[in-house]
Amino acid sequence: MxxxxxxxxxYKQEFFWKRFPQTVLGGPRFKLGYCAPPYVYVNxxxxxxxPWLLGGIGTLLCQLQLLEELHAAMLSGLLMLGAxxxxxxxxxxxxxxxxxxxxxxxxxxxxDEEEVEFTHCVGPETVRFIAPGKRxxxxxxxxxxxxxxxxxxxxxxxxxxxxxxxxxxxxVALVVFxxxxxTLCTAEYSLIVNTATETATFxxxxxxxxxxxxRPLYILAFIAVDLADRFTGPVPELQLTSQVLHVVFLxxxxxxxxxxxxxxxxxxxxxxxxxxxxxxxxxxxxxNLRLLGMLAMSVCVTVCTFFIPSTLGVVLFSMAMGxxxxxxxxxxxxxxxxxSRGACGDSGWHxxxxxxxxxxxxxxxxxxxxxxxxxxxxxxMTEAGLLHxxxxxxxxxNLARVSQDAVSYLLITLFIVCWALREIQGAYxxxxxxxxxxxxxxxxxxxxxxxxxxGLHMAGAIRRVLLNLVSxxxxxxxxxxxxxxxxxxxxxxxxxxTRAFRVVWQSSEDALLQMVVVVSVRLAAxxxxxxxxxxxGTGVQLLLVxxxxxxxxxxxxxxxxxxxxxxxxxxxxxxxxxxxxxxxVLNASLCPLLLSxxxxxxxxxxxxxxxFTLPIFLVGFPRPQRSWPGPVGTACPCPDSIYYQQMSGSLxxxxxxxxxxxxxxPLTPGSHxxxxxxxxxxxxxxxxxxYGYCTVNIKGLELQETSCHTVxxxxxxxxxxxxxxxxxxxxxxxxxxxxxxxxxxxxAALPVRVYSDARNVLSGIIDSHDNLRKLQDxxxxxxxxxxxxNCVQRLKAFPWDTEExxxxxxxxxxSSQLGQSTVTQPAEFRRASSSLTSFGDWSDEDDLFGPQPAxxxxxxxxxxxxLGDTVLQTGPSLPGSVEMDSLFENMALSALQPLQPxxxxxxxxxxxKGRNPEVPPTKSSGTxxxxxxxxxxxxxxxxxxxxxxxxxxxxxxxxxxxxxPEEWFRFTLGxxxxxxxxxxxxxxxxxxxxDGGLKxxxxxxxxxxxxxxxxxxxxxxxxxxxxxxxxxxxxxxGLKWLSENKELYQLALKAFRYSFKLLFDQASLGPMESLDxxxxxxxxxxxxxxxxxxAEKGWQDxxxxxxxxxFSLGHDxxxxxxxxxxxxxxxxxxxxxxxxGEGVRGQWANLSWELLYATNDDEERYSIQAxxxxxRNLTVQAADPxxxxxxxxxxxxxxxxx
Length: 1202
Description:
Elements: H1 10-25, H2 38-63, H3 69-104, H4 124-130, H5 137-157, H6 160-167, H7 170-192, H8 214-231, H9 236-250, H10 252-258, H11 264-279, H12 288-307, H13 311-325, H14 329-336, H15 367-391, H16 397-423, E1 428-429, E2 434-435, H17 446-452, H18 454-480, H19 491-506, H20 508-525, H21 531-534, H22 538-571, H23 580-589, H24 591-603, E3 608-610, E4 617-619, H25 641-661, E5 672-677, E6 680-690, E7 693-700, H26 707-724, E8 744-761, H27 769-797, H28 827-830, H29 858-867, H30 954-960, H31 966-980, H32 986-993, H33 996-1012, H34 1022-1030, H35 1039-1044, H36 1046-1069, H37 1075-1088, E9 1089-1092, H38 1097-1104, E10 1109-1116, E11 1121-1139, H39 1141-1157, H40 1176-1181, E12 1192-1193, E13 1197-1200
Parallel strand pairs: 9-10
Antiparallel strand pairs: 1-2, 3-4, 5-6, 5-11, 6-7, 7-12, 7-13, 8-11, 10-11
């Protein structure tokens, strides 16, 4: 799309210009888009001005001195209460009448959906149009009472006498009086008549009708300040504040229209978060419930600190509670509930779509973690108590000052060393400007990369010790020695020191910076006293430094984002609209205004909103750091989500190490990171930060790349290549980050166990006649191997020397349960909890032929026989099996109507015919009986009777008999015979090989399957091969018989897929040189491979279980080619970079405004087009649904960062 794509299409433009005036005025609809009678507009004007008229009555009586101010306000309030009751009664009456009319009337399908047919000035449809009414009866009462109170207090707030006293001028008072009543009228109309759609929208739906309360409550906050000024003594600061707020009161409608004032839910969450972080030393939380709970506990601690009489008790209590509250308390809740090694509750593991945490230190709360926390707590309390008791200024002032100065220099040294060690961990230094010469580059081999990174890892370990152990104790010593602790029984100092002791543990790196700033000011001042600064006390000083440093960093990030939007609107040709030059000139001429907007947004910690992502900047309304109201972990899942779900566990382990070393920079809640590997884009957000832990959310973006997605992904690759692929020895001019202005700054490459995806076009392989002829022979060999192996697995489940039968038909095959992923990852990660199925109890214990299930008793076998097919439907199938439930989801396979997924009912259980003569074997053409076996052990490898009843003429089988691989049969039989019983001798194996009856039985079944698949004269075409591989077998004479024997059908289909994989491997690597190599290859397929289709459920299960290799055959209909896809699980380098967090918040704020207010959901809109600098398309994708569409999103994941 070109740069001049419309910001809003014509329909949305018309809709927007209807909605925006309604928002400005608080609800009246004066622009309808169709003709309406004049009384519709007159009624709305009258209702809009009613509060002014009723308030004017009270104002007039007060000015005439007939009523006191309070009585005049009460009169206006009562009159407004009566008017509100009348409006709500009319709305209720109209709603009931309209309900009757809608049931009886016939809708006009030709009329516009918004058009209303008005019949009377007070008709039901007119009242319903003007005052729709409330959904809940409680809101009717609440809003009505609030409307009366608001009018009464508003009248008192803008009385002419009060305004004249404030400003000393009647003319100014009249102007303020008139404009103030406009503000009051907009709030009253929105509250009681019709609620306006606010530009500041946080929730997608206003379920509980909170929006009407927004404007009245803001007005009540202004009135509260004025009342405080009235009833308190003459306080100059309060009077000045009241004067300023009366002026701001006039522009409230403009602020509401621009969306600068938060809705109530966002304002509450933002206020709680700001109070917790900057007032109480906490961290933003990963959920609203955690935020509320943590704020409540922190406030209780602060209040208790204020009332503790002893300064020593204050120090010990504040230090202990600060340490405990900085830990992940959800782990303690789980531990106390008896699940020290169970799921971690809110920490995010075991919630359906996230892998289980490994059994390593810090991942779960156990005895070792408790001992460490207890030791740190006791050590810090001992240090603080001893220093405060023996070296406090009240005891020895000179010694305390000398000691604190020594600790101050230690803090400065620690800060410099920790900062330097963190800088050298990343790919860039000094804010992403210069390349780090110490960082290894140009290496795709993970082992070599790890070897070259050992020095950096050692430096990271040193930094980890200094930051997590040394620095907190040094900062505790500094606070314990401070003289202002003696003045703790003031509210400000109590809050300041409680916060200081908390932030030492909650965010040690930030606390170290804040203390270094305070120490530097103190050392620079020397003996000179700074009255305003020193009187604050150390705790309040640290609070102010923390707040200012946060706002300064926000200002710099917002300024960089604003400059990127400004510059790229002209330099990027595909972003250069016709209005680009005009906007640049306006921003240059109004540069002070632009800087003011950036400063104001930084001060409020609100996003800088670029309207339509153009250089038109507004201050978005303040909201929490998470930006979205819903719970973390919502996504728009699709089949590709499993690849992100698989890699999230290993990525979490890699992130844990990177966070601990400092490779990804400072850990600040609200930071965003982007990871890239092949076609996968991972979005990582830090939600919460505490002592020794970090909570993150991992999102996966779509793999089916659109054109915009491809453009930005290509630029991401270029940015990462510039950081990680350059040669290590660089000149000064080549050591600069050429992409510094990009929103993405590369940080580190992390080794992650992930699937590498390789796709090949099979031209020359699948269409080769030689290969197709070889496919028939490979199919028979693979089928013979699977048939014999199926017998072995059945004997593993039902030992031949017990009272259960051996050669029965219908026993469920265990061949699908062979093998386990040979990964070095902890077992808990391999048993990843999945939204599809769980394999937590599966383990083969290195057994070549899979697990040995518990023996079934005769009673159980009899029960299964009575229940039929339903008995075996429980439990998930395992990798290596062929799941047919999803195999045909995109195909019309009328010929395979009777097919069922593997694992469903497989007929009656096995019955030994030799021991149950009353059950005669079924006779049919070509059937072989047991009595033909020459070896007594051949019964162990007999096949079920139903598999021998193919409706085929004997001479057809005799014609194909030369195709049966007898040598391969004897070789496989000899190898597998030893697996049945360990004490089996070579004589037994030889006797089995020489048993002609057993060979004829397997030949009959194998050749029957060959004929049923239509391959008796070799496979003729690639399309036929693809259809059989996919399970869409064309009709043949024996297909019905084969499909009725479900287990045999699954074995035949698996054999065909194995044979095609053999064809693929031999065409690529050369032919098999021996039977032993072929046997080993088939064992490897069964153990380490899943060979099937991408759309099958077994494919997804294998990915989640981390099967080492997966193979699928595909057909590209557009190109007319057949493709092979191979996934291989291995440790690869995932490149991770830091995103400009303020740029992300600004684009998400625009997305929220554009979709929730302007309803601009056009898929080709300008604000979603590719932007290689801002990464606009990727940022929109990463937003939470329903505005964004990530295909995977983990629940909050707890990562230990020791």
